[in-house]
Amino acid sequence: MSQVRVLAGTRKGAFVLTSDGKRERWEVSGPHFGGWEIYHLKGSPVDPNRLYASQSTGWHGQLIQRSNDGGKTWEPVGNKFVYEGTPGTHQWYDGTPHPWEFKRVWHLEPSLTDPDTVYAGVEDASLFRSTDGGQTWQELPGLRGHGSGPQWQPGAGGMCLHTILLDPGNPARMFIAISAAGAFRTTDGGVTWQPINRGLRSEFIPDPAAEVGHCVHHIAMHPSRPNVLFMQKHWDVMRSDDAGGEWREISGNLPTDFGFVIDVHAHEPETIYVVPIKSDSEHYPPEGKLRVYRSRTGGEEWEPLTKGLPQSDCYVNVLRDAMAVDSLDSCGVYFGTTGGQVYVSADAGDSWAPIVRDLPAVVSVEVQTLP
Amino acid sequence: MIRVVLPAHLRLLAKVAAEVELEVEGPATLRSVLDALEARYPMLRGTIRDHVTRERRPFIRFFACAEDLSHESPDAPLPEAVAAGREPLLLVGAIAGG
Q1: What are the chain A neighbours of B13 within 8 Å (beta carbons)?
Q2: What ipTM was assigned to the predicted interfaces of this complex?
Q3: For A153-164, how does the pLDDT look when each residue is reduced to its tens digit (9 = 90+)?
Q4: Which domains does chain A have, with CATH numbers?
Q5: Model's pTM, two decimal places?
Q6: Does B15 touch chain A (CB under 8 A)?
Q7: Cα distances (Å, whole numbers) of residue A353 to A132, A308, A315, A350
Q8: CATH number at residue B45
C-alpha cells in the first residue's frame, strides 16, 4: 500500500510525518536538528530516500544536511556558498546600494533526474547548484549578473530566492522567483535569464508595471503543463499560459488576494489552492477564519474550504513554501502554519484534519508519495 | 594538548562532548587552534568563522582564563594556561534569539 512522507521545516527543527495511503494515522519523527531553523527540506524524485535539508541559525550560519534513508539519519555536507566574482550591490530598503551578502538557503530543489544534483535558492538572491550530492556548491552567476541586479530590493523577509521550478519536459528550462525582484526564466540551463513579469502590477513601487521589482511570493506549476504558471504575489493571484510571457490576474472572488502559498492539484491541472491572508500589514486570515480557497477553473472562481479548519479566533499565517500536494489517486493537500499546525486533506481539500498541532512555527511543507 | 569547549549546537553537530582535546602544531593561537579544530571536525567549517574571510561569526565569542579574547589578533599567543592545557578555550554563543 502506498505511503506518504511529509517533510516539515520549522523555526526550531525538522519533522518527518508518515502515514499510509489513508492519511488518517500518523507517526511523527523529530525534531531533527532541534533548535535550528529549517527553512526547507525536500526529497529527490528519482531516489525518494535521498533528502536535502537547509539548516541555519544566527550563531552558526548555514548548514546543509543530507539523508540517504528517508530522514532516519543525516550527515552534514557542504555549506560553502560563495558568489562568483565580485558580488556587486543591490538596493537596500532605503534605495541605497548594498553589497550582496550570503545569509541562508531558503529552498532546495533536487534534480528531476539525478539524485546528486540539487539547486539552492539563497538570500541574498542567487541560485546555486551542487552536482555531487551537496558536497560543493557553485553559483549560476548569470541570474545575479542579470543587468537588473543592481535594482533588486529585499522584501520584508529579506532578498530571497524562494521558488525554483524545473520543467519536466525541458531540462534546460527553469523558473525562479525572488522577493522582491520578481520571476525569471532560463532556457539554457541557467546560463542566461529573462525577467518574466509582464502583466504584474505593484502599486507600491515607483513604476507599477516595471520589468523587475515585484514582490512575488510563490509560483506553482503542474508538471504536465509547464507553460501554465500560477503565482501568489504580494497582492494579486496571477496566471500565465505562455511560460511567464504575460500574466493576468485571476483573484476573482477571493476575500483578499494577499497571501503566500499557491499550489496545483496533482491530477487536475486547472484545480489550484491558495490561503488568503488579510493584508500585508496583518498576516493572518480574514475574520479569524482559516480557509483554503480552491478554484477548479484555473482561477477567477474560488470556493472556500473550511471543513475541519478553525473558523473562529484563528490568527496564524501560512508561509510561502508551506503547502504541498501528494500524488495518490485521491489527491492529498497539506499545509503548515506559523502556529505549529500541519493540516492534511486526503480528499483534495473537501475536509481537513491536523496531523500535528503544536510544532514550532512551520516554514515549509513538502510531501513524498512512496510505493 | 589544547582543550576547547564548544557551544551546545556545535557539540551535537560534531558528535562530541562539551570539551575536545586537540594537538596543535606550533604556537597556540586562535587561528592555529581553530584550524586544528576544523581539520579534525570538518563539519564545523563555516560555523565559527566565515568560510572566506576567516573572521569570527558575529554571534560567537572566544573566552579563556576569565578574559574575552574575541577581539584579539588571531595570531596572538593564547594565555599560557591554555597553551599548557590547564585551562580550556571557550567558544561561546551569544545569548540571543527567540
Answers
A1: 60, 63, 76
A2: 0.94
A3: 998 889 999 999
A4: 40-340 (2.130.10.10)
A5: 0.97
A6: no
A7: 39, 6, 18, 11
A8: 3.10.20.30
